[in-house]
Amino acid sequence: MNSKKKIPNATMKRLPLYYRYFNQAEEAGTDRVSSREISEALDIDSATIRRDFSYFGELGRKGYGYNVKSLLKFFMEHIQGTDKKNVIIIGAGNLGSALMNYKFTNLNDKMTVVGALDHNKHLVGTEVNGVDIYHTDELEDIISREKVEVAILTLPASVSQEMAERLVAAGVKGILNFTPIRLNLDKDIYVHNIDLGVELQALFFYMKNL
């Protein structure tokens, strides 16, 4: 990855779309694709695609397009990474259980959900879709034992900051935050916020202004 350029957040958010596109193209037996073809498939204009790819060097040639196998290998090695991440879910309530039941089909070779944590005595000791639920008191032990790098946070807002600090202190490097608050953590910890209320409001706005 080209370290001389700062990659915009908007570009980073589109990278999983590109990875999925090239993965599907490779499965379909396609050898080369153009930015126009990618644009039509993903509904992203060609200029944006070329600009996104330019941050990572010369990934294609004018008049030739993009080699599917080469680009898929690039995304796997330099963006997704070749190592498999161990993930824990913090909060085994309705949302946490839904995530445990979700089939992360495109990520099965990139992540493993090694457990979930909750303080509810009725949930501790049970499992959902093969994922064991532990008490939150075991958080540090599980992170150390399973070498967990990523946590998915689905707790009430009132306890989210405290739990996030525990996660960071235990060695977690990235947090997918489903809680409605913005976590105040060290800048070296990457937090990706998903506020379902905000996303729905954005959807309603776009629908109204079609």
From TrEMBL:
InterPro entries: CoA-bd, NAD(P)-bd_dom_sf, Rex_bacilli-type, Rex_DNA-bd_C_dom, Tscrpt_rep_Rex, WH-like_DNA-bd_sf, WH_DNA-bd_sf. Its main location: cytoplasm. Keywords: Cytoplasm, DNA-binding, NAD, Repressor, Transcription, Transcription regulation. This is Redox-sensing transcriptional repressor Rex. NAD(+) binds at residues 91-96. It comes from the Bacteria. It is found in: Cytoplasm. Residues 81-182 form the CoA-binding domain. Residues 17-56 bind DNA. It holds the Pfam family Put_DNA-bind_N. Homodimer. Belongs to the transcriptional regulatory Rex family. It comes from Corticicoccus populi. HAMAP family: Rex. Modulates transcription in response to changes in cellular NADH/NAD(+) redox state. The lineage of its organism: Bacteria, Bacillati, Bacillota, Bacilli, Bacillales.
